[in-house]
Design goal:
- The protein is an alpha+beta fold and about 150 residues long.
- The protein contains 3 helices and 9 strands.
- It has helices spanning about 5-15, 25-30, 35-40; strands at about 60-65, 70-75, 80, 85-90, 95-100, 110-115, 120-125, 135-140, 145.
- It is globular and about 40 Å long.
Length: about 150
């Protein structure tokens, strides 16, 4: 189980190696994504709180990266954080996510990206429920629910 100290260590010392790497040009990403998906995932945007389709969804499945299909989060660890964004307590695998120190917006946070394609997903905070104590706060437009 990943804990906050692991995340800080990854963000400072390097992330786990992904199972695969997917690299495309900006033009290739634009051709695959909607304008809003591109803004969120490739330009590090944020959707308005409460606006995402997965905020209140409780369907079973695996959430995957909208850009490359990498499996990211299991629906069984999704919870209502009342933050306005879908929230999870753990990634599906330790190496599914990469952690980037983010000093924008006048504060220090930890950005989470897909470790396969570098898509911006959201941020992780140390204020989630036990046992991990983590809240992965994810933009709905950066993920898709695979119900298979």
């Amino acid at each position: 189980m990943i804990k906050w100290n692991d995340i800080i260590s990854f963000s400072m010392n390097g992330n786990p190696k992904p199972d695969k790497r997917i690299e495309k040009t900006a033009e290739e990403w634009r051709s695959l994504l909607t304008e809003e998906q591109y803004r969120i995932t490739r330009l590090k945007g944020t959707e308005a709180p409460g606006s995402g389709e997965f905020c209140s969804s409780h369907e079973a499945g695996i959430y995957e990266c909208i850009c490359c299909g990498t499996l990211l989060f299991d629906s069984t660890i999704k919870y209502d954080s009342r933050s306005g964004w879908p929230s999870f307590t753990q990634p599906i695998k330790e190496n599914a996510i990469q952690y980037i120190r983010d000093a924008s917006m006048g504060m220090v946070r930890v950005e989470v990206q897909c470790n396969s394609c570098d898509a911006h997903l959201g941020h992780v905070f140390p204020d989630g429920p036990e046992p991990s104590g983590l809240r992965y706060c994810i933009n709905s437009l950066s993920i898709d629910l695979n119900k298979d």
